[in-house]
Amino acid sequence: MVETSQPLGRFQYQRLELKRCVPTFLSSHKTLFTVLWIAAFGSVFLWQRNAVGGGGFNIFWRAPVRPMPKLRPFAFNLTDFGGVGDGVTVNTAAFERAVSAISKLGKRGGGQLNVPPGNWLTGPFNLTSHMTLFLAEDAVVLGIQDEKYWPLMPPLPSYGYGREHPGPRYGSLIHGQNLKDVVITGHNGTINGQGQTWWKKYRQKLLNHTRGPLVQIMYSSDIVITNITLRDSPFWTLHPYDCKNVTIRNVTILAPIFEAPNTDGIDPDSCEDMIIEDCYISVGDDAIAIKSGWDQYGIAYGRPAKNILIRNLVVRSMVSAGISIGSEMSGGVSNVTVENVIVWNSRRAVRIKTAPGRGGYVQQITYRNLTFDNVRVGIVMKTDYNEHPDEGYDPKAVPLIKDISFTSIHGQGVRVPVRIHGSEEIPIKNVTFQDMSVGLTYKKKHIFQCAFVEGRVIGTIFPAPCENLDRYDEQGQLVRRSASQNTTDIDYDF
């Protein structure tokens, strides 16, 4: 059976399997990072190859076709409902007939829809409760590129209107609302949104509605997404919205790193009790962006994102950031742990972004055991991300940003390791740094940049921290109290 997640309160945090076997300071940093890269990509290879039903890379040999396991009392093939996997036939009706059949089996344990090897062109379709969508190895679900086949939906209540245009928005390729017990899995089959046409029309301003995600699950619980590849989404790739008890594991998410606008990897939005682990993400925007609504609409909706664990990832974002919180965070974000993550060849590694008008809070955020490789800015907190849905926001609704810790942060090729840009109206409170050593590419003063921040540094870190932070020794004893918490030392010129 497919494993389902437990509530986050029961998670047993695990130590990184790949423990450091060499001292922090070697005579050759290149040697250290060669070891890190081999270990990291070796682990990616292993989980892809050995995942439950996972479809490995098969670089040196071709594995025999594996039978699709039966994970529900009833199992069907898409071909049973008239599906044709030739890449030309439109299979929307076949998917709809299959889902309708499974919807009648909920009281008997639900049903499984197997998608065999082939190219299965389809328009958007909905899932149902107690359903497993199983993608075989070499099965590719292709999103139809003509937007007239994509239905329009009401705007998300916590956003006020379509994210890009007022009014209705396009739905997602694979969609679900008010569901329980849904699994999307397989032998690493692929869901391909064929977003190239969407991106081009967006850049040319030929679309009248907000683009749709690739996979969007709303108002649902007990969701498992594992052992699949998602690629080339028209917009955000995987968007769980107002969901509880969500597990995303062993998922590969891909989009071009440039000119694939807003193709975020995973956007947990007002979700609770969620784990994202063992994934590889390389996309044209944030790899992960935790959200909870936009300005006055998010404040009114009032659903926070909370109890989220993100671990054991390799991510890349040349346009935005590896792991982001915000900027739409008006419902609040709390109790988030990000650990054992490698961010490589990216513009930013981890970022918190907000602005006056957002309201809400970002608090109890833990980052630990992060590795940055060839990253322009490592750690970013930005409080002037002034993008608003309309003129109705309240500029006096300022967010609270506090209780954020960074432990065991390492890397090489980083231009600006830290840029914490608080403000007089949005000061950043209780930030902690411990065990940090980041190799630099830009030998300039003030590369640890701060403004309106209070917090502490425990022990010795590199590069030297800003004057805004208190200093403690390794035993946690106060060495020097800062008198410069409101000092501004932000330089966006490098």
TrEMBL record:
Gene3D superfamilies: Single-stranded right-handed beta-helix, Pectin lyase-like. The keyword Hydrolase applies. It comes from the Eukaryota. SMART domains: PbH1 (SM00710). It is found in: Secreted, Cell wall. Keywords: Cell wall, Glycosidase, Hydrolase, Secreted. Transmembrane segments: none annotated. One of its GO terms (biological process) is carbohydrate metabolic process. Belongs to the glycosyl hydrolase 28 family. This is Polygalacturonase. It comes from Linum trigynum.
